[in-house]
């Protein structure tokens, strides 16, 4: 896992680091427990995307020995709050550069990002323009049941009733405006995330085909 540079905030650029004609970025959003990770794993298997989860990158940085951001990230995650965007954007940029250099993969699913408008604007200004946002739409009662179930085995500090409540609040107040922003630009693909994982994935595949995104041979 690449470490983040000590330089913060992420450098200002006059144009994005990666050209969106060359590098594909699909943002994946949905409430906590909507099934983003499950569906991303399917897409990696069948389409060959590189999956980058903002939450996973933050958890890895939190646990990295010597990280100057570890304690801060821990507190934000436990409270279901949005970690400051400089850290998240820089982690994503580093992970993308790493995948391009070492795996030659230029197609990214960026999961759990952008969760706040400032991240969306900063990322598209400094790193890469997105192709579209895949949004998993799911009612809170369904997500809550899934998260409490996952909490029995996940070992995650935020899969408990108190943290879940805070995460829902953050999602509605801070992340939904990002979905609305991209919806206005006609750049959101909405999938109903209530059915079984298999049925949700069928819908995802259908919508990717409509967007001209093909499965790998
Ligand atoms: P997740 O693994 O996607 O459920 O995210 C778990 C937690 O990590 C969130 O509740 C936030 O505290 C933090 N987090 C995840 N993604 C982001 C992001 N894009 N920006 C800031 N914080 C994030």
UniProtKB/TrEMBL annotation:
GO terms for biological process: 'de novo' pyrimidine nucleobase biosynthetic process; nucleoside monophosphate metabolic process; pyrimidine nucleotide biosynthetic process. Residues 53-83 are annotated as: NMPbind. Keywords: ATP-binding, Cytoplasm, Kinase, Nucleotide-binding, Nucleus, Pyrimidine biosynthesis, Transferase. Transmembrane segments: none annotated. A ribonucleoside 5'-phosphate binds at residues 59, 81-83, 112-115, 119, 156, 167. Binds 1 Mg(2+) ion per monomer. It holds the Pfam family ADK. Belongs to the adenylate kinase family. UMP-CMP kinase subfamily. This is Uridylate kinase. It comes from Rhizodiscina lignyota. The lineage of its organism: Eukaryota, Fungi, Dikarya, Ascomycota, Pezizomycotina.
């Amino acid at each position: 896992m690449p470490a983040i540079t000590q330089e913060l905030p992420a450098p200002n650029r006059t144009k994005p680091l990666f050209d969106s004609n060359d590098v594909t970025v699909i943002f994946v959003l949905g409430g906590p427990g909507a099934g983003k990770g499950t569906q991303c794993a399917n897409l990696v298997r069948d389409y060959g995307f590189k999956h980058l989860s903002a939450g996973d990158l933050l958890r890895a940085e939190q646990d990295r020995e010597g990280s100057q951001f570890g304690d801060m990230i821990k507190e934000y995650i436990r409270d279901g709050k949005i970690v400051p965007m400089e850290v998240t954007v820089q982690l994503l940029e580093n992970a993308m550069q790493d995948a391009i250099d070492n795996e030659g993969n230029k197609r990214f699913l960026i999961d759990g990002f952008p969760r706040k408008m400032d991240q969306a604007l900063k990322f598209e200004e400094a790193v890469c323009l997105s192709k579209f946002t895949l949004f998993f739409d799911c009612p809170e009662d369904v997500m809550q049941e899934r998260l409490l179930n996952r909490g029995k085995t996940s070992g995650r500090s935020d899969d408990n009733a108190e943290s879940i409540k805070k995460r829902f609040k953050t999602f509605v107040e801070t992340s939904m405006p990002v979905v609305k922003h991209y919806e206005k630009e006609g750049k959101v693909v909405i999938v109903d995330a209530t059915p079984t994982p298999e049925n949700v994935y069928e819908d995802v595949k259908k919508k990717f085909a409509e967007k001209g995104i093909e499965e790998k041979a």
